[in-house]
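Protocol step 4 of 5: obtain the predicted structure for the target chain.
Materials: sequence only (see below). No template structures provided, no constraints applied. The aim of this step is simply to have a reference model before the mutagenesis design in step 5. Sequence pasted as it appears in the construct record:
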Amino acid sequence: MSDAIVFEVDPTNRITSWPEEASEVLGWERRAVLGKSWAELLAAHDAAGNRLCARSCALHAMARAGETIHVFEVIAADAAGEPLRLFGRAEPLGPGSARGLRLVLWRDRRRGSLERRRGEDGPSANDRPGSSPLTARETEVLRLLSRGQTIEEIAKRLGIAATTVRNHAQRLLPKLGASSRVEAVSLAIRRGLL
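Step 4 output (structure tokens):
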């Protein structure tokens, strides 16, 4: 997969558009995928092995707040069951994402996998369950993000400015070695931080 595949899903993750390139690369014909959940179709998991968009979907929660998820890692399978490590981008299709998401998936050969970028020296002290590099407030923000709350909802609940919540969310990403909030939630759960 050298070029990006772009397709759209409705607010329930059902595929509403499927380009010919997606059929060529992933093996599913358009008529067979329309109306199906993209995450189930691709057997999509995050880098930590958690199913993407299984019950609640952080991608949609962030899109409802008008936020684009710039890069997240997807472990998937094509129609033949061959494993794929992809990167993704999720963009809201309109204000409040009532129309769903545009998903862009690609294999990034330049950067390699997130694991390689983080190093292969084994787990760090921050990878051990229970040890947290996060402040109490960052942990609180991450916990509320994991429940699908928007930045504005978190700000209201904590009695702080939305900009402050965004800053906390941004600062916790490098501390966890995550490239998106979705991945940060996944890594925090895996490490027993939430």
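Step 4 remarks: The chain has nine helices and five strands. The mean pLDDT is 79.
Proceed to step 5.
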